[in-house]
Structures are given as structure tokens and as C-alpha cells.
Amino acid sequence: MILLRRESVLPEPSSGILSLLLTNGRLTELSVWPAESEQAAAPLNGIYVGKVMNVAKNINAAFVELTKGQRAFLPLSHAENACILNRKADGRVLAGDELLVQVEREAVKTKEPVLTMEISIAGRYAVVFPGKERGRLQFSGKLSDEERLSIARACSEAGITEEILASCSLIVRTNAAELSDCGYEPLIAEAKALLALASALWQTAGTRTCYSCLYRPESGFLTAVRDTPQEQYEEILTDDKQLYEQLHAWLERSYPEVLGRLRLYEDTSLSLASLYGLPKKLREALEKRVWLKSGGYLVIEPTEALTVIDVNSGKYTGKKGMRDTFRLINREAALEIARQLRLRNLSGIILVDFISMDNKEDERELLHLLSAELKKDPVRTAVVDMTALGLVELTRKKVRRSLYEQLKGAPAEAGSQENTP
């Protein structure tokens, strides 16, 4: 179930729209999105004509001004792909260049937003990359061979051919698998709309002035609904009439196949927040200690450099032997850690100190379980290794601020060059 409501249950000074994904009554995902009147100057996935202020060769990066006073960090690992608008491209990025960039990560704490020169425009079923690997139709690795063949055939019959893709590439997302039984018309319609948008953007970019915003994505809470696979929710529920009407109009226009799942909660005897215990769930999502059903617990400690998670046996009083006890608690902890990373939006380097196990087969089994669970996360997350000290290293891609920063309203201030990502 997806719940959407305004900020009345949020701790001060947070404001905005709250989106929650509940699975079997438990929070799986939680985000705070700014109200439309408070949209960030450089929203995630926004596309701009930015101006390079200076190039830091020692870190192979540049600092780009998106709007007056809004600076961002641009890695130069793909400088050869730069779309430079005020001079002929030569594989270099220089101070004074005006170039097409996209916000890839939000500003976090003292760090600026992170940009990319690999422009993309995403929908529910497809992503278009204007100017990249032109003429290619690609597919999510999670789609089966049969689904790929069916989609490729549908695209060809609809006129989405190499000629149409001459100026861009099109990637079909995992969500397209939802359409295998009912037909791929929604995918085709969305792909054509994205291709038209990308073509117009690419053709007009050279005529736009510096600091222009060429593409501003939909509101964050709409994106959250768009990107959530239908198999993960049965309904979209809100108790806010204005949000309901906005969602209804958007779904009717863009994704009518999902419209039947939208419902307005109107029971005045019991609020939506009380029905689902939202204040308690929010408090628990910020607490340092997370209890496990076995009586064990996790201690989650985010720091500036990394996040440390400690697994403890706690109140466990089972009658199993030591090996079975540690194995049981660690397995339960692995499942909960995967959930907490997604719920709290913890990213970067993560170290997990599981309870030590002497049996190597138990360790391999634990890492396999953790890795399999992390693959369910829509944000790229991976098990790196187990260190000589028995700490499990994880990485999770940074995209948005952590849940703590979102709920506590931590300022996302622009930093200095010493605070580069």
C-alpha cells in the first residue's frame, strides 16, 4: 500500500508531502517531498544549462553554477560526452563553458548537488537517453528473454524503429513486465512521449541561455508512485482531497491503468495517521536501536564518513546451541538490515558487525541471504566483502538525503571545495 499525506504527523521543522510504502503493515519506504511552493532550486533529475565556474584537475571535477548562487559538483569522468553550447566540443571541459547537465544527487549536508553530463528522462516503463548510444533499444536485465522479444515486436509494430531512435537510446524498465498480460500500449504511449520530449530538448538546447532549466521533473511524490512496481501495492491511499484530485488527474492523464487503485480516505471517526500508527512508525524509523523478534537488536550509527550497524544477541533466551543461536539472530538481522537501509535511505559505505560465527559455511550462507535481500532494493546496493575482522562491507548508491535529514529538516547547504563528494 502507498500512503500519501501532508506534513501534520512530521516532526518540526519538516514540511511537505509524506509518501510511505507499507508491506504487510510494515514500513518499507518513507520519503518527505517538498510542497510545490517549496521546490528546491535544483531538483533531482532537473536538466539545466550550467556554467563552469572552475575546474579542479586534481580531483578530475568541475564546479558548475546552475542558477545564480546555486553551485553544484560535476565529475569529469565522461568529459568526452559533454554537450557544450558556447563553443565547439573538443573532449575537454573548461572554465566558462556552458553545458547541458542533470542533477544526479541531491545536496547532502555540506555537499553540493552532484551533476552528470549523461542526460536521461525517465517514465514508469521506459527511460530515454538523448544523444547517447543512438539508435539502440535496450532492456532491463530483470526482464525475461520472452518479455524482451514481445516488447521489441510491439515497439517495431508501433513505429519505434532505429530511424526514430536516431538521436537517442531507449531503455525499457523492469516495470514494463506488469503489462505482459494486458498489452504494451501504455509502454508505447509513454515511450513516444519521452522520445518527443527528448528530441525537443536536444534540438532547442543550443538556443537556450545560461542558467535555463530545460526540464523540471514531476513532483517527488508523483515520481515515488510512478516508480513503485504495482506488485508492491494494492492501493494508493490519501486523506487529503487536494492530493487526491492531483493524483487522480495525473494518473488519468499518464497512467490510467493504475487509476483504479487510488482511494480517498474519508473516515472522520479515525484519522489515517492513527489507523496505521504513523507517528509511532516515524519515531521508530529514526531510533538508534531496532529490536528483532528473537530479542536481538541492531544499533544503527550513521556518521559523516560511513554508517556502522552492530548486531547484538540482546534478550534472546532460546534453548538452541551457540552456533544455531548466532545463526538465527544473524539471519534475522540480515533481513532487517536490508529493510532499514531502504527505509532510512542510508547510503555510501556501510559496515555491519554481525555476531561472530566460527563456521565458514554459516558465513557464506549469511552473505548469500543478505545479498539476495539487497537485490530487492530499487537503489543499487551490494555486498562488497567480509573483512579480516569479520565486518561485512556494503555500498548503497547515494541519490537523496537520508530519512533523518528529510524528517529533521537538516539544511542542505552549499559547501566549499574541501567538502567535495
TrEMBL record:
Signal sequence residues: none
Transmembrane feature ranges: none
PANTHER family: RIBONUCLEASE, RIBONUCLEASE G
Record-given protein name: Ribonuclease E/G
Gene Ontology biological-process entries: rRNA processing
Organism: Candidatus Eisenbergiella merdavium
InterPro entries in UniProt: NA-bd_OB-fold, RNA-bd_AU-1/RNase_E/G, RNase_E/G, S1_domain
Cofactor section: Mg(2+)
Record's GO cellular component terms: cytoplasm
Domain S1 motif, chain residue ranges per copy: 45-118
Keyword RNA-binding: yes
Gene Ontology terms for molecular function: hydrolase activity; metal ion binding; RNA binding; RNA nuclease activity
